[in-house]
Design a protein that fits this description.
Blueprint lengths: L12 H13 L10 H51 L1
Family: Belongs to the CMC family.
Protein name: COX assembly mitochondrial protein
Subcellular location: Mitochondrion
Length: 87
């Protein structure tokens, strides 16, 4: 079973079209494996797409984490400086 095709999959559009074409050309034989090669290709494409998205999300999360840590460090330094100036 593949992922729902109701949302755009820009990386896999050609493979999706190939599977849909196979289903149209083989309305009955698709149940007996006529489109298995296209299905396997689609599964591989979805896996690559998921890996790409996961890597991109990890990269963005790390960048966001570094930004927050930098801002927290700057705030601590400002507070420490303000405490020293208050003495």
């Amino acid at each position: 079973m593949h992922a729902p095709l109701d949302r755009p999959h820009p990386d896999c559009q050609e493979v999706i079209m190939a599977l849909n074409l196979c289903h149209e050309e083989n309305p009955r034989m698709k149940f007996f494996g006529a489109c298995n090669e296209a299905k396997v290709a689609l599964d591989k494409c979805f896996k690559k797409e998921k890996e790409r998205k996961r890597d991109e999300n990890l990269r963005r999360a790390r960048a966001s984490d570094a930004y927050v840590r930098q801002k927290m460090k700057e705030r601590r330094e400002r507070e420490a400086q303000a405490a020293q100036d208050a003495k």
